[in-house]
């Protein structure tokens, strides 16, 4: 019990809380001081049947605006081993079919792949939106779902300014190859171009977009990461005709040669998913500009002659 002011008694009186009805009642005069109050404490009651399931949750998933029913449709469960009556209602519902079953499965696949890459929810939502636009055009039938979903995630990452390499996407694509994902990406871009009447904005990739993740994979220090970032920024002043990911990997290789904790080329190749030969070629193009792109505060105490010659 607790003390609350009662308007009939004209003073503070002890009140009784009836949790089942949500009423707060004065213990002296019986006046209902508050009705239908909401209990905001944790839910500990189990709403399951006799199946032995003790999950206290009694609500469904979140609302999904990309689905016609906002993901609020009713599903009749049969219980474990087909129990819960004769299961006739569940069979009838399954027999009727779900017109959005395919898109729900695609959304689940997008969520699972994105979780394996530790992607943020905004990228998941963008990938789901891209797939929904394809589904509305009814152009996904007969195509490799894993490749289409992986391509949607690849495009969403680029549009959100958090690009991932094709190899990274391929590693979580449930068997879809780089070639299949590449074809799916071109197909999506083509289809959405037809829908919008203009080219689809993919977002520009820069070498700096990959640095933080690659350096973290290699366990580089904060000082090394800062040096790599400044070097990549200065390298933009020169005409280095290599892909952004190749430039990023080559600069990481260059900076680590000047540090106390040198990294093997093979380790950098694994962390960046760039072939060793590709890193060497990009390094060969960057080497003549090393003195101009490596920051003075990092290289002044270290001799740039420690950099290995591209010919070696």
Automatic annotation (TrEMBL):
A GO biological process held by the record: transcription preinitiation complex assembly
CDD domains: CYCLIN_TFIIB_rpt1
UniProt main location, coarse: nucleus
Keyword terms, alphabetized: Metal-binding, Nucleus, Repeat, Transcription, Transcription regulation, Zinc, Zinc-finger
Family (UniProt): Belongs to the TFIIB family.
GO molecular function: TBP-class protein binding; zinc ion binding
Name listed for the protein in its UniProt record: TFIIB-type domain-containing protein
A Gene Ontology cellular-component term: nucleus
